[in-house]
């Protein structure tokens, strides 16, 4: 969000851009987080949108990937793809939270990130966030939970 604020202050003359809608197609984790004793994880995610008006703090869950994709154990994978069976329409402030499912203890929150769809590059249909840009993962300085090159790519289509 720091880069969003900088863009609003410097490039957009303090004007918030008009809301735009995207159709989320897929999310790919590049590298395997290490949250299970065998060095792998059982990843899933939730997507939340901020309720209008913008100053409202309430978030509404719009998808739990377990319900549409299930959960599979992953170990030593270069990529972990999450392909949605149908696009998910998202507008405004969107929070993505990733978890590791555990059978005998509480699920672990691995990381999360926010995007505002109005601030996405209008000529691109994807964005990638590095480990340093992911809340939670950025704290793993010794690469014990996430590989040093860990990143997340989100792919979408613009909705007219």
Walkthrough of the structure:
The structure is a single chain. By secondary structure, this protein is mainly beta. It has two helices and eight strands. Strands 4-1-8-7 form a four-stranded antiparallel β-sheet. The protein is globular.
C-alpha-based Rg, rounded: 16 Å
Indicate the proportion of strand residues: 35-45%
Structural class by SSE content: mainly beta
Query: What is the CA–CA distance across the termini?
Result: 25 Å
Helix content: under 10%
In sequence order, what are the helices and strands, one letter per element? HEEEHEEEEE
Spatially, the strands of the biggest sheet line up as: 4-1-8-7
Low-confidence stretches: none
Number of helices: 2
Number of strands: 8
Oligomer: single chain
Basic shape: globular
Q: Mean of residue pLDDT?
A: 91
Largest pleated sheet: 4 strands, antiparallel
Write the layout of secondary structure elements.
Elements: H1 2-10, E1 21-30, E2 43-50, E3 59-64, H2 65-69, E4 79-91, E5 93-100, E6 108-116, E7 126-130, E8 151-159
Antiparallel strand pairs: 1-4, 1-8, 2-3, 2-5, 5-6, 7-8
Offer a concise description of the structure.
This protein is mainly beta and 160 residues long.
Task: Supply database-style keywords.
4-stranded antiparallel beta sheet, single chain, mainly beta
